[in-house]
Write a structure and sequence with these properties.
By secondary structure, the protein is of the alpha+beta class. It is about 30% helix and about 25% strand.
Length: about 600
């Protein structure tokens, strides 16, 4: 039987630390709350400075309206705020903050100092609970030191400074994107990491803040209005492809929220327009009348409830789907695309007959296409290496300059008369994605990318050992002790494969050489090393699979028939019909199934 313990009231200090823990989880939480205050204060310039990932120091300075001495006396008390006065005000919120918890929570778990002025240079400073005169030209400066020093239970769960700094930067970016008219600067360890001048549009701020590599011409801004809401969306064209949903951002009334349903709305609307099951880069800025949305359901305001959720979801999905459909048609017909916004769709709607679409495809790609809404975009003529495990010569298709298009370029051109023999009939390619062959009285549909990926994967495995020196060594900073443990566990295998990798110090690995056939950049290798967390023993497999995926032909690449034929030959010679990530290389429709589908006996 459990020991009886009476119910007791917690001490004020313990209760405040527990409450603070709900709001302040890590340094990035402090940055979030202080940025909210600066933006609400009407600042036109905000500077965020951190040291040691924000664990030792966080300083946020702004040129906002500032506070009086009386404000300073109250601002760190629980539930003290200038944003609301009574519960009904929650229905009309237009500020980012409103609970009055931020500064009291920060003070409970750190050393807090605030300097502020309404009319500088005369100012007031709050430090250690005491207020004294100070000097400040304008606005407010908040300095937070030694976060969780008095709360060891929370501090032990913080990660390395590099990781915490990355989280602080991400929070900074998420706050900076929707407030594009504010000049913002992020400084870490005394170094300017990100400087954002005031921008004239959401698109400009998105491209700069996210450091997107694609040119501005590949991004578009659309808008739409509904009953009680409106939104703008910055969308990358089908040429801007992402392998996951991490570049889909949802902002509501200036806050980024985790809203799975609206992310799915973007994914459904863009489905079929991106090659190889890719995802778009999309930034949605939704403005909802305050009385129709509730943010007071999550301590960090990362979630929201909507009164008209279905209407918002449908409107967003319809507008994005219309954009990609018409962008695709416009590209096919070689027309310049100039969106003209209207309340219903966000741009002028055009209708094209299927026959005209097919004619456009035929003019563009020299052959009719099966699916008029899945164009191979962007078009790349590539060199394809399908060398079988590094022993036989590779076939090379049409040479091109598109980056990342080919795997290693060893081997020689295979003349048509020298094609390897096969037990199938090559039928051709379609949708810029698939290869069709007839084999064993059945139709085989081969996923060209997946098959080429597995061929290159086997080639990489067979060629491990020889390495090439890097002109500039890669510096890989890990985010946790677990990442280091995984690398150490796999170090003998990595070195045997051709990676010259050494642990420079805790959290820093130096790579001076890589396998001669490995394909990737420093950033990609860092992602690969951190990508096997769930299966530490599979790190080498993960690295090789990722390299093969990057090097394999992509949907929309133009590959000549002989190269496609060679891929098919090698596909049927593979040890198993699966890509390195476990997806099938092909599916089969036998004669019986074909006859059944066309209702023949």
């Amino acid at each position: 039987m459990r020991e009886y313990k009476p119910v007791k009231l917690l001490s004020k200090e313990t209760a405040s630390k527990i409450a603070a823990g709900e709001v302040i989880e890590r340094p990035a939480s402090v940055v979030r709350e202080l940025l909210d205050n600066s933006i609400d204060a009407g600042a036109s310039q905000i500077i965020v400075e951190i040291e040691e990932g924000g664990i030792s120091t966080i300083r946020v300075s702004d040129d906002g309206c500032g506070m009086t001495r009386e404000d300073l006396e109250l601002c760190t008390h629980t539930h003290s705020t200038s944003k609301i006065e009574e519960a009904e005000d929650l229905l009309h919120l237009r500020s980012l903050g409103f609970r009055g918890e931020a500064l009291s929570s920060v003070q409970a778990v750190s050393s807090l100092e605030i300097t502020s002025t309404r009319e500088g240079p005369a100012a007031w400073k709050l430090s250690l609970g005491k207020i004294s005169p100070a000097r400040l030209n304008k606005g407010t400066t908040v300095e937070v030191k030694n976060l969780f020093e008095n709360f060891p239970a929370r501090k032990k769960f913080l990660k390395r400074p590099q990781y915490e700094a990355a989280q602080c930067r991400q929070t900074f970016v998420e706050k900076a994107i929707p407030h594009y008219n504010i000049e913002m600067r992020y400084i870490a360890g005394g170094i300017n990491k990100l400087i954002l001048p005031p921008h004239s549009s959401l698109k400009e701020r998105c491209l700069t803040a996210m450091s997107l590599k694609e040119p501005e011409e590949l991004f578009y801004e659309i808008n739409q209005e509904g009953d009680g809401f409106s939104f703008k969306a910055v969308l990358g064209s089908p040429a801007v492809v992402r392998s996951d949903k991490r570049n889909i951002y949802i902002f509501v009334n200036g806050r980024r929220i985790n809203e799975y349903g609206l992310v799915q709305a973007v994914c459904y609307a863009s489905e079929g327009y991106f090659p190889n099951g890719g995802f778009p880069a999309a930034f949605v800025f939704l403005n909802v009348e305050p009385e129709r949305v509730d943010f007071n359901i999550h301590p960090a305001k990362r979630e929201a409830k909507f009164e008209d959720y279905k209407e918002i979801h449908h409107s967003l999905s319809s507008a994005i789907s219309s954009f990609y459909r018409q962008k695709t048609v416009s590209d096919l017909l070689k027309e310049s695309y100039e969106p003209k916004y209207t309340p219903d769709l966000g741009f002028e709607k055009k209708e094209f007959e299927a026959a005209e679409l097919n004619q456009a495809y035929e003019r563009t790609y020299k052959q009719p296409q099966v699916n008029p809404y899945w164009p191979p975009s962007p078009i790349r003529q590539i060199e394809v290496s399908v060398s079988p495990y590094g022993t036989s010569p590779a076939f090379h298709g049409v040479q091109a300059s598109a980056h990342g298009a080919s795997a290693a370029t060893h081997g020689v051109q295979t003349a048509p008369q020298d094609l390897p023999k096969s037990d199938f009939k090559f039928l051709g390619q379609f949708c810029g994605t698939f290869i069709a062959v007839e084999k064993n009285n059945a139709l085989y549909i081969i996923d060209r990318h997946a098959a080429h990926e597995r061929i290159l994967f086997e080639d990489l495995k067979a060629s491990l050992g020889p390495s090439q020196e890097l002109l500039i060594p890669y510096r890989i900073e890990t985010e946790s002790d677990k990442d280091d443990e995984i690398i150490r566990l796999n170090l003998p295998e990595l070195q045997k494969a051709g990676f010259n990798i050494k642990e420079e110090k805790r959290g820093l690995w130096i790579i001076r050489a890589v396998p001669i056939r490995w394909h990737g950049t420093e950033k990609e290798l860092k992602e690969d090393l951190a990508g096997a967390g769930k299966d530490p023993s599979g790190l080498m497999h993960h690295i090789l699979a990722s390299s093969a995926c990057r090097a394999a032909c992509k949907d929309g690449d133009i590959i000549d028939p002989v190269s496609a034929y060679n891929i098919a030959v090698k596909t049927f010679a593979l040890p198993e019909p699966l890509c390195p990530h476990g997806r099938p290389l092909y599916f089969i429709i036998d004669r019986t199934e074909l006859f059944k589908r066309i209702k023949r006996t």
